[in-house]
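User: Continuing from earlier, I have the next pair ready.

Assistant: Great, send them over.

User: Here they are, in order.

Assistant: Folding the first of the pair now:
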Amino acid sequence: MKIGTVQFNKYPVFLAPMEDVTDMSFRLLCKEFGADMVYTEFISSDALIRHIQKTEVKLEVADEERPVSIQIYGKEPEAMVEAARICEAAGADILDLNFGCPVKKVAGKGGGAGMLRTPEKMLEITAQVVKAVRLPVTVKTRLGWDQESKIIVDLAERLQDCGIAALTIHGRTRAQMYTGEADWTLIGEVKNNPRMYIPIIGNGDITSPELCKQAFDRYGVDAVMVGRASIGAPWIFGEIKRYLLYNEQAPKESFAYYLSVLKRQILQSVARLDERRGILHSRRHIAATPLFKGIASFKSTRIAMLKADSLEELFDIMDHITL
């Protein structure tokens, strides 16, 4: 499979863009464990063109994580075009347009999945961005705004006509947010539409190697994107790739091994930011990691980890976790 000039091997598996999750430290670990492509946190086009420092930091990518896609969102064509050019200058391999974020502060203002209510404007933005940059432009969106407006099959063709190089579809509507089950049948319908020729990337509820293989085999997608299941568990990419390529389960490592991976992520985040901000940015991974699930009477330890404000304190708590 190719996206523009970027070539991928069999069964490509991508790290989904997630706000406050997919910073460089996490992306590098996911890449190390086997993610074929990683995405930045989504970036506001309005903030980017105003040169907001907190936003510009999100443009930083390392050569070790390539290929990397920078994702932007917004609702005004002019701002999206200018932001796209900034991303191209920053060295993105691929530019992704976010038309799928369901959160109120984005979709409620017309950006992200809010664009599913104004598809003509979505298409206008997409066409203008494609014309404005030389790098491959892709789109990530959802099935539709709600159950009564699942427009993705027709919309996919129209986005393809705008010149995008690939399309990622999350198998939920905006109204569903992240509840219920992802519906992959419509993703499969898009992929099997004889008029579609660009790669189709499926996203939603991929929580295990078996489900990832099923997505490829049953729906025929060109790539699969993994999101929430990777938070606090970058090793899931190694497990998935081993199953896809060799049809075997990856051996389970020791608790100490997985804990060391989390510690390494925290240390990298601290080195890139500073101690306070690095720890803050790591808390979502600490809270979500499956590593601590099932440990008896763990609530107080989890709270203590999430309140720790120094590496010494946090690592001391982690080192005293007993199974």
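And the other member of the pair:
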Amino acid sequence: MKQPLVEAMERYLREQVYPLHTPGHKGGRGVAEPLRSLLGPAALRLDVSLMSELDDIHAPSGCIREAREEAAKLYGSDACFLAVNGTTGAIHAMLLSALQPGDKILVPRNSHRSVMGGLILADAAPVYVQPPYIQEFGLQGQVTPEQVEEAFARHPDMKAVLLTTPSYFGMAADTKRIADIAHAHGAVLLVDEAHGPHLGFHNGLPPSAMQCGADMAAQSTHKLLGAMTQSSLLQVKGTRIDVRHAADVMSLLTTTSPNYLLMGSLDAARSQLAERGPSMMEDALRAARVLRDELRGIPGLQVIGPEHVVGRYGVAAMDITKVAVNIKDWDCSGIEAGEALRRDKIAVELVDPQNVLFLVTYADWAPVQWPDTVNRICRSLRKLSPAKNPLEARSAWAIQEEKKKNAEKAEAMKMDFPVTETAASLRSVFYGKKNAVPLAEAVGKICAEPVSFYPPGIPVILPGERFTDEIVRWCGVMKKQGLPVSGPADVTLQTVRVLAEQNG
């Protein structure tokens, strides 16, 4: 299977050209140890500038153009762009390509914070929709077709609909129906498909955005396939998006010094998927089933599966390679479980107050090593089981602390994601004057910075939204659970930035 960009890089390496040009480390000779030894000479020699034989990402006519064309052919799109600023950059480009300043766009309220950045850049007006809440697991589902229809009834001038599908937990929206609704109203469908670059290559997985009629999709090739971190793709299909304009936007947002190792890894990952995509996905599904089966054998754990969510909460299908376990019936939080697993040298994808998420890919499947890894995961979790740590066997102080912790955990689990009220545009707040105030004194004021608990990076409040008692309380409870805060200048949340009050 050809890899036009990788092959061009390989030819360049064989020529042993002496570089009297950037980068300054000159093929790795100037890189400090131990990084030089860790990366190795070949990788550093491929950290090159824009040589004519390696093409130009801004005006591709050779190997980069061919790599893009092969990726579009693989995914069934009409055009594909290499995104070297991750899916964040692809999402920004998607929004700027599809929208004019002032355009309205439906946005799920649980979208990743990168969407906010794209809305600011595009000067677009979000119409927020809150997906259904899955109380049983403390998770949010997907925007439903009915919610999309209702939004168009209220805002018939919406120009686009954005979906985040599949979600971090593998829950896929009814993308095909929503695409039909958007198109019937003269709008485009944009998909944040960060967690779905592997979809469409096995019938045991949900269909891809392109298969469902999306006009654009931003994919994190690095998250679940063989590309390097920060390497993503932006797909465009159909005539509703001006591909030439999309190319201009990508050029506007892309560095003039793209890293060839990142671009080459996209080409290699695409080639690998084209050559053996179905067998790769079968390996991923096989590995996930083994892990799911073993976790189901641990008393008190609930392994979240299609039987719990598909057909409800806006969820049309589920990617089971996202293996999530709910531990609300245990005497510990998901955060504590994640920390315990890490002490046993197992790093997980995500934790929240009651869930732990294991991300499984084709690279995990090895008939001998994978079962051993699964056993290690299960042994580590069993050490946290209430059966192993009965309350009556602990000291009076430990019992008191456990009861306090359980009460706090119960409070966190029963809390719904707060409802927000938009009071100012994202862009006006971004350029407005800001003040820092104590979190407790922010009620009633307009937020001037996003506040997210990461992962999964979903803002509880966005710039332009008004702080309420519920939001302040929610932030305090989640912070107490140990979730890291992302977005505000003060990540301790002692203070938050708000829009300065205008006098007169």
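Worth noting for the second one:
The chain has a mean pLDDT of 92. The longest strand covers residues 188-193.
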